[in-house]
Structures are given as C-alpha cells and as structure tokens.
Amino acid sequence: MSEHDYAPIISYLGPEASFTHVAAKELFGQVGLSAKPTIPDCVEAVSSGRATYAVVPLENALEGSVPLTIDYMFNEHDLFINAELSIPIQQHLMVNQAQANALDSIESIHSHPHALAQCHKYLLYQYRGVPLIQSTSTAAAAKYVSENPDKKIAAIGNQLACEKYNLHMAEENIHDFHFNHTRFVVLSQKKGKLEKHGHTEIPKTTLMVKLPKDDRPGVLHQVLSVFSWRKLNLTKIESRPLKTGLGNYFFIIDVLEDEEAPLMKGALEELKALDCSVRSFGTYYSYEQRPTRPN
Amino acid sequence: MSEHDYAPIISYLGPEASFTHVAAKELFGQVGLSAKPTIPDCVEAVSSGRATYAVVPLENALEGSVPLTIDYMFNEHDLFINAELSIPIQQHLMVNQAQANALDSIESIHSHPHALAQCHKYLLYQYRGVPLIQSTSTAAAAKYVSENPDKKIAAIGNQLACEKYNLHMAEENIHDFHFNHTRFVVLSQKKGKLEKHGHTEIPKTTLMVKLPKDDRPGVLHQVLSVFSWRKLNLTKIESRPLKTGLGNYFFIIDVLEDEEAPLMKGALEELKALDCSVRSFGTYYSYEQRPTRPN
Predict the structure, then answer these.
(1) Same domain for A113 and A62?
(2) Domain containing B145 — which CATH number?
(3) pLDDT (tens digit, 9 = 90+) per residue, A203-258?
(4) At what angle do helices B66-75 and A66-75 cross, to 10 degrees?
(5) Is the Cβ pair B37, A116 closer than 8 Å?
(6) Closest approach of A265 to chain B, Cα-based (Å)
(7) ipTM of the complex
C-alpha cells in the first residue's frame, strides 16, 4: 500500500525490475505498484477490486506468454484497455562491480531464456562457448550476479535491473534486432482513456470479433469490408483459436478511431448485422517510450 | 548422434521432457533428437546443416516465445515448414514417490511461470496460500522434485517429465482451459511434406505477405479479396510488426491449399501484381495429437 491513501494500486507482472515493471513505472510512477507472479494474478487483482489497474505484456513479450493475456481477457473477465505503452527491447550485459575489470574471463552468462535468445548473435560472436544459464527472469539473473561478487558471471537484462542491483554496465544494447518493441496494456474494470503527456493523437479501439457459425471462405473478407469502405485504418488483425475445439476462431482487430465516433458506431452495427459477435475493449491512447542510453 | 548413421538429426527446444520434446518424439520417434536451449539455437542448427530438422513452438506456446520463432524465420534464414503438429496442453501435478501419501501437506509447488499461470484456478481452489516457486521449465521442476525425496514439494508438468523423473502422478489434467493446444512446426532447409500416418487431408501453405509501401486503409481488404473470390480458405491471419520501425507490418497467412495448385498459383501472382512481396514457407500437412490419459 502506498503512502497516499487514495493512490490507485497497480498490479504488474513481476518480479521487480522486470520489463513490465519498467512499463508500469513509465505510466504510473513509483507509487502503488504491486508485483504479481503471473498474468492471471495481475488480471484477477483488478477483477476482484484489489487493484485498480493491471499492466501486462500483450505483444512480442519478453517475460510473459502473450496468448495468456488474451485468453484471460477474452474468456474470464470483463476488463477494458485504458492505455497501451510500447517500449523498446534493450538488453544489456552487466556484471558485479567487483568484476568490472574481468570481462575477458566471464565463465557463465545468466538470463531468462527469451533474453538469451534475443542476444543470440551477440553471444555467438563475443562469448562463443561460454555457458548460458537460464533464470526465471532477467531480474532474477541480475540479483544472482549481485549476490555473488566473487563469481566471474554476467547477467543480461534491462537498465532498471542494473540500477536496482547496483551492477556494472559491461555492454549496452546487445540485442540482435533493433526497432523491436514490447507492447504493454493497462487494464481496468472501467472504460476510459488514461491521459498522460505524450500520447498519440489518434485514439485506438481494440475489438474482438467472432465470425458467424457459417464460417465459409470469404466471411473474414466481408468483415474487413465493413472497415474498408469507411476508410477505418486497422493497425492489427490476428486470428486466435476459440477454446471450444479446433477450427473455431475469433479475431482481434485494432482500429485507429474512437468507438464513439459515428463511423465506428456504424461499423459495429454492421458487424452485428452480419451476425458477428463483437466485444469492444474500449478506446485508449498509445504511448511510446523512446530508446534511452543508460548513464 | 544416433546409432543409425543416416538418421536425421532433429534439434528441438529443450530441455529433455519439455513440451517441444513431446512434439518431436511424436513426429520423429526417439532417434536423433537433440535438445537446444533456445529457439535461435534450434533454427541455426538447421541453417548451418548440423541438423536436418528443427521442432519449435509456433503458437500458444508454453516454453518458448512465439514471436521469436517468427522473427527468426522471417528475418534470418531461408527455412521452410515441412509439417505442423498440434498437441493438447495437459498439465499434471506430480510429487516424489516418497511423498505419494503426503499430498495434504505440500509446502511448495514448482513449475515454469506459464504452467503455473495455466493452472491458476486449480491452484487457487486446491492449494490457496501454498507458495508457487518458478523454475526455468516444467522439466526442471520435475527434476528438482525427483532429487529431493525428503521435501514436501510438487511439480506441475507433462506426462513425459513424470515418467522420465519417475514421479508419482498426484492429479491429472489440472490446467484451466481445456481444448487448448500448442502448435509446433518442423523446419528444414528444403520444401517438402513430411509424411506420416494420420495427417489432415488438406495440405496447408503458410505465406508471409508484405503490403505495398502505399499502406492506405483497405489494402489488406484488397489482399484478402485475392483469396476470397477463389474460395481459398484462410485458417490464420496475423499482422506482425516489421523490425524497420513502428507502423510497418507484414502478414502471416495460412491457406488450406497446396501452393502448386492452379488457384494458389493464380493468387500468388495476383498478390505480386498488387505490389505485395510474398514469401512462401511451403506446403505441409497438419498432425494432431489427441489428449491421452496417463497410465
């Protein structure tokens, strides 16, 4: 609980110094943040009222399984998206301060399997043959390095973990793909746009559309016509299996328009007329964190 | 290396007894399987010729980050899909044989964070308050339980891990969502259909389509028309960000047709005429493992 009685509680996918923690801090500051071990725990904290917001990874995530977020949003709870934040994936190599001069003799490198994979080429060229040890999170790897000053080991993780565990930054930005982002969403029980400085000008609406039972070829094409002739711009479309058996799908569609705009209202009406079932996760703004250079 | 000099080497996302191992065994049997620590390691084993096939998770995965598979397939290597296998996600609670009669006094439950999340409701109802300890894989949790017969601990994982580490099956099928599948693909350097008993009758082709630079609203609609008027059935469509900056997308489209069929050839030609860049990952069969009851 924060020192302000009225500050909201924000549950996020932990542990502390995870990439989701970076996202939560960027949007909400330091106060009221509460780390949870899994995505369902984050979501449930909000639906039970113990937290006002949940921050969870939605796309291209490092530490969470993205289908998990979608499954829990779709199947379990009536939650809405209040904001999204896109942060660049920046992975750094860090060692204990006591080992700052021993970078040539690193004996093992620790991190979450996804982070190790994201730095695959760097590790192949710079540390070929050095054993890679998997940890449960990038933050756990940083913590382990901080607790073992005598070991010649390194961790891969983000800048927040480097600061929190007071490590020496050995090499910055060792990830293979630049321009790679992770997209986080803020969920709550209420529709509404979380307003902060620096958001995009055009709000976005996320829809889940279930096609009519009669799933003939071309029905998706018909659904997209609804948006196309209104010149509504889609920034994402993804088919996801329904959990009712193989071959049944729903679609997640992001539209660059407010759901209250007349064209959108028309589109939603028309989808229903086509016998689609449509659920809106609300309209929200997108925020974007720019790459930072540590120190 | 296998005992047969000519048997192919199959790299899969490890460790042993992972869900990907289950998939690899189902398709290739026991011989020639080689566990790799990350998805890029699996892919690189094939593109360097050290392995003939790679088995990696593609969708709704437990132990791998799915965007990683797509990123490495799209950006890095000229690989093709030779088969896909869908296996049901079945999570079980298992304890050391020495603790088979002490299920009421379990003091902690160990597993990969995704597996813990997939059994969220079961754990909430049956083991509320029991600490959940994260491990790097479901197999690592099972191994830990097998090595600590005196501890009152349990692991969550698949049947293969239960067998490999000779654990006692305490409760079967404790996952929250039934009908949940993970989709694995077999990659190789050559196009071709891996033929085994029990595949689907209709082959599937996976395409990656990059829209023309002129990314006006409705261009995706135009792309889908290409398939729609030919009555080609799409089983998946997903937009993925290109790694060249925000707002640039490509599409992954699965079509239920052989790429050599006349209608498909026409569709691919027409996509190119629309100024799309199209890459085919080849045509392959889908296999499906049915849920099994352990023992």
Answers:
(1) no
(2) 3.40.190.10
(3) 999 999 988 776 666 777 888 889 988 989 888 888 877 665 545 678 889 999 99
(4) 130
(5) yes
(6) 18
(7) 0.82
